[in-house]
Amino acid sequence: MRPDVPREYQTSAMPVTGSLTTNTIMWRVCAALLPGALLSVWFFGLGVVMNLVLVLVMATACEAACLKARGKPAMACLRDGSTVVTALILTLCMPPSMSVGILALAVCGAVVLAKHLYGGLGHNIFNPAMVGYALALVSFPDAMASWPGLDGMSGATPLTTFRYREGLSVAELWNAANGFGVLGAAGWEWVNVAYLAGGLLLWRMHLIAWRVPLAMLGTLTLLALIFYDGGSSASAGSPAYHLFSAGTMLAAFFVLTDPVTHPATRRSQLVFGALAGIVIFAVRAWGNYPDGIAFAVLLANAATPFLNRVARTHRDSHDQVTG
User: Fold this and answer.
1) CA 46 to CA 49: how far, in whole Å?
2) Under a CB-based contact definition with an 8 Å cutoff, are residues 136 and 105 in contact?
């Protein structure tokens, strides 16, 4: 449990209450990720499975070593399921058939830096999978930008193609050969639809704070509408492009909704999601990186203690006025 979360807000911060255990919750999250994971294998190849096996092995070993160093049972990493969720999300963010060294760097960043240096499960400020991914991204940007298409050849993602389109209008660029279109050839739209379905399932099971993805996706849609400008060569992209490219739905429903790293109150959750949406759009439209999901998540995570503190101060002030 995060120590900076006020006691009176624990229920709203952690929407899962009752008889559900951490293990049960984690495995339900894994089940909700499964459709998107299977479609990733279908569209991007067995390299996704290879990554997952390597990441799972390394993450489990790293987790066990950290627990042992902290004087805790090493097998605890297999009981709560958190290591599996982190490994699965990290894998789904990485290009298939990634080198073992880069995967190891990402795993160490996720498990050691983001999780255990903060005290382990329930105490981390930043989402572990995004810390690992961001570390790999800034260290090896070229390797992290290459994804296979249906022809088996490695190439740029739709986000990269759109970001560096050399003056082409949206109409000139938007075709299946470049991975665009309604559920286009590269499969990105299908994968995002699968994550959307899994995220809605988590919402129906009351496992996530729905205001977070709603605010993030709503903000991203609004900014896309403002800056689309009809699809000129200077267009920042349509709402459909931003919502169904890369890992948008994965981030909205499975990363930002990590209850340990998002704010506790309803209003703060809306601000948190909106902040992430603004940063994602800004990086995609004007930044040096084609996508900004990892940076947006980490920045929003960093704002969580402040948002919790503001909410607590507002609550205390309200109590004094009405008391």
Assistant:
1) 5
2) yes
Instruction: Report the distance separating Cα 200 and Cα 23, nearest Å.
Output: 20
Reading the block at residue 134, the tokens are: 């961001």
Alpha helices (runs of H) in 115-254, residue ranges in sequence order: 128-139, 141-144, 158-163, 170-173, 188-204, 211-227, 239-243, 248-250
Tell me if the pTM is above 0.90. Answer: no
- Are the C-beta atoms of 96 and 148 separated by less than 8 Å? yes
Asked if residues 172 and 162 have their Cβ atoms less than 8 Å apart, the reply is no
Contacts of 203 (CB under 8 A, 6+ apart): 210, 253
In the chain the first and final C-alpha atoms are separated, in Å, by: 29
In terms of pLDDT, which residue wins out, 230 or 266? 266
43 and 302 in contact (C-beta within 8 Å)?
Answer: no
Q: pLDDT (tens digit, 9 = 90+) per residue, 92-117? A: 999 998 999 999 999 999 999 999 99
The identity of residue 298, as a single letter, is L
* DSSP strand pairing (146-148 vs 154-156): antiparallel
What would the mean pLDDT of 161-174 be, rounded to a whole number?
70
Distant-in-sequence, close-in-space partners of 189: CB < 8 Å, separation ≥ 6: 181, 182, 183, 244, 245
Q: What is the pLDDT of residues 29-63, one digit of tens each?
A: 999 999 999 999 998 889 999 999 999 999 999 99
Q: Which residue has the tokens 């999780």?
A: 115
Whole-angstrom Cα distance, residue 165 to residue 220?
21
- Contact (CB, 8 A) for 296 and 119: no
Which pLDDT tens digit goes with each residue over 185-205? 457 888 999 999 999 999 999
- Return contacts of 295-298, CB within 8 angstroms, 24+ apart: 295/134, 296/251, 297/127, 297/130, 297/251, 297/255, 297/256, 298/126, 298/127, 298/130, 298/131, 298/134
